Amino acid sequence: MLLDTIAAISTPRGEGGISIVRISGSESLEILEKIFKPKSNKLIKDLRNYSINYGYIFDDMNIVDEVLVSIMKAPNTYTREDIIEINCHGGFLITEKVLELVLKNGARIAEVGEFTKRAFLNGRIDLTQAEAISDIIHGKTEKSLSLSLNQLRGDLREKINIIKKSILDLAAHINVVLDYPEEGIEDPIPDDLIFNLKKASEEIKDLILSYDKGKIIKDGIKTAIIGKPNVGKSSILNSLLREERAIVTQIPGTTRDIIEEVININGIPLILVDTAGIRKTDDIVENIGVNKSKDLINKADLILYVVDTSRELDEEDYRIHDFINNDKVIGILNKIDIKKDIDLKRLNKINKWIEISATANIGIEDLENKIYKYIIDEKVDDSSQKLIITNVRHKSALEKTNMALDNIFQTVQQGLPMDLMAVDIKDALDSLGEVTGEISSEDLLDHIFSNFCVGK
Q1: 210: exposed, middle or buried (C-beta count within 10 Å: 0-12, 13-18, 19+)?
Q2: How confident is the model at residue 187 (pLDDT cuts 50, 70, 90)?
Q3: In sequence order, which residues have a C-beta less than 8 Å from that of residue 413 and are 6 or more positions away?
Q4: Measured distance CA(353)–CA(309) in Å, rounded
Q5: Per residue in 289-305, pLDDT tens?
Q6: How far is it, in rounded angstroms, from Cα 83 to Cα 72?
Q7: Residue 310 burial (CB < 10 Å; 0-12/13-18/19+)?
């Protein structure tokens, strides 16, 4: 597979200033020679490495486009293969024409994420760095981008290698004691090896604990705005977004489906979901939206339960309250500019209330701050100072490593024979190898790289 040459469009499809057609593989320069004539009239093989060259793309004798071509020769490239990037004009048809010529002259179309997959398979990056590239592309906030850049830089790989060294030192000692008894090496495991192993175990536990924090920074908080019709859910969504995203009317049942938008609160993505008002209705379409809202209540990370303070609570308010089985709930008293005194005693699942008026823009900033403090602040505070994992795959592998280390400590404490540790040592090392990709299946790689775009 790695012997062939691949190509793809690496910029978004459509009209723009430029488009980039990327080629990677051993035949990249040969393909370029068939379709590109530099203005300098130099031969392709004589073009300098890491140079940008002005000229024309030809189809036989016909000029196709005026382009700039970047030359990057192996091994110091993104894929560790020869890479050519053709910067052509950004029209849809012209870009497709250039790609078509590249494919006609020896390349094949790249699979999704195949350029980055080749970078991994050729040893330029490990699997954590490949995943970081995907996270950078899909990053929603500065905090998530910062974490991804740290991982791309190799911070997680370096930490894993340090942990691995402590385990390998123990394995080396045990092997010498068991295989070369004539050397007279002490049978008990030296204190410094145990100390380093315990330190490695603590570092693994810190990484595992960081996952909840990392998941929030990377994926955000799914927040459902719920309540009966006309309590102001859509107005709250619009106020938080600072735009008229949802239709607002006095007619009950205006919102019939789920409306989802993302806002940034202090660097954390808040995925706001405006739900259909939960009520009994004979309208088939509205009823579908109501059922979606009920399902979302169970799946949301945070619920904003809205009541209208301008009118008395009724059975619809209480029924929605009774649906809530999530302890992450903030109650919102909306329309305080025209509020009446209402009795909240029956709404006993909610112990935190915030008063706002969405239409008058009263209390919206306070609501944002309360959301951050209530569910986010305690999880992500000081995240920039520590290594944080954001991938559930990493967490699962580290948990297996930690379990293997716990078994090793038990073996030492119980004074059992050293050779009993061999399986646990192997399990610990294999699990660490899963994080970096030293041990990986084809299915896992296909799954990871399927999340990339074709030109990356």
Answers
A1: buried
A2: low
A3: none
A4: 12
A5: 556 666 777 778 888 99
A6: 5
A7: middle
